[in-house]
Amino acid sequence: MTPRSKTSRPGRQKERATRAPPRRATRPVELDRADQQIIDSLIADGRISNRALAGRVGLTEATVAARIRSLQEHRVLGISAVFDWEAAGYAWDLRLAVTVEGRPVLEVAEQLATLRYVNWVMLVFGPADIVVHAQLPDRRAVVDLLTAQVSAIHGIREVRTDLNLETLKYEVNLARVPLAESALEFPAPVVDLDDLDHSIVAALVADGRQSNREIARQLGVSDGTVRLRLRRLGDSGMLRICAQIDPYLTGRVGAWAYVAIDLSGADMPRVAAELAAMPEVLILSVTTGDHDLVAFTVAPSRAALVDVVLDEIRAIRGIRTADTAEVTRTVKLEYRWARLL
Questions:
Q1: Which of 39, 27, 103, 46 shows the shortest CA–CA distance to 67?
Q2: Which bin fits 58, alpha (ψ -120 to 50), beta or left (φ > 0)?
Q3: Which of 3, 159, 170, 296 has the CA that lies 20 to 30 A from 276?
Q4: Edge-to-edge strands of the sheet including 337-338?
């Protein structure tokens, strides 16, 4: 994708402002070397200036700005605020494996996706039918979710609940963009948040590329105030501004799966380190329940995913079994919450 860098005619500005955004492409978008360099730089620092980007890729600032705008309009790239659920006060990280009986699986999944604190709902081909992720603030919320909300849904035959004890790796840079708007709750943040903090956060959620000066102008404060507030939120580990790219449109992901791993008396830190070093493993967690580790794993194709599981993951010394549940459909995936490690 090589966006045109010519300045638009003044008479076309109004037309462009009212034109509907391009439909989401259904196949990978062709990206040239400069696009890839821009994307990689924004993944490393979502608020890097156009001037700095221009110096890295050897283009003018105007051309860099046009390319970023084109990538966003084609829904390849988004830049927004991502939040650490633990720092925000969500102390319980649950994964539910749901088996359905007597009702279409998709209907049950869509109902699960409406429940409070549920951030991920995926249909899978494996031992269960649906995998659900939920982050909750306290034990009372956990009990309510499991005994009052999930259990009330018709068609659920069995729910196996695992508690993620520790997240060892969490990649935050793949997302379907633009991110859908969603309400943000911070039940027990590691730093106190006032109305100004919430307003700054809302501005960055809307557009992570906004400058401190622009946010300050909108909120009627100094850009120094905005800078200090953002530094405080970043230093607390609760907030990160980052670029997120569409995994399908960039061709980086064509298949993904949960790989539940059992160890045979192995040294878990060593095995976990080997798994975390694999670029295909996006999320790695230590878990309770039937397994020791769960690795959320991706690959460009289903065949490549099978190779990763059979030839790489299962080949790690100390792994006894690696049960795979391939994701067949994403019903809900809230990208704004992550572990910022």
A1: 39
A2: left
A3: 159
A4: 239-245, 77-84, 337-338
Are 336 and 81 within 8 A, CB to CB? yes
User: pTM to 2 decimals?
Assistant: 0.85
Which fold, 87-173+248-338? Alpha-Beta Plaits (3.30.70)
Q: Pick from 175, 221, 178, 176: which is nearest to 200 by CA?
A: 221
The answer for 157, left when phi > 0, alpha when psi is -120 to 50, beta otherwise, is alpha
C-alpha separations of 319 from 219, 262, 263, 265, 273 in Å? 54, 6, 5, 9, 13
pLDDT one-digit tens code per residue, 250-287: 888 899 999 999 998 778 999 999 999 999 999 999 99
Per the CB < 8 A criterion, the answer to whether 64 and 50 are in contact is: yes
Q: Where in the chain is the domain with CATH 3.30.70.3460?
A: 87-173+248-338
Options 1.10.3720.10, 3.30.420.10, 1.10.10.10, 3.30.390.10; CATH for 29-74 is 1.10.10.10
Kind of pairing between the strands at 77-84 and 156-170: unpaired
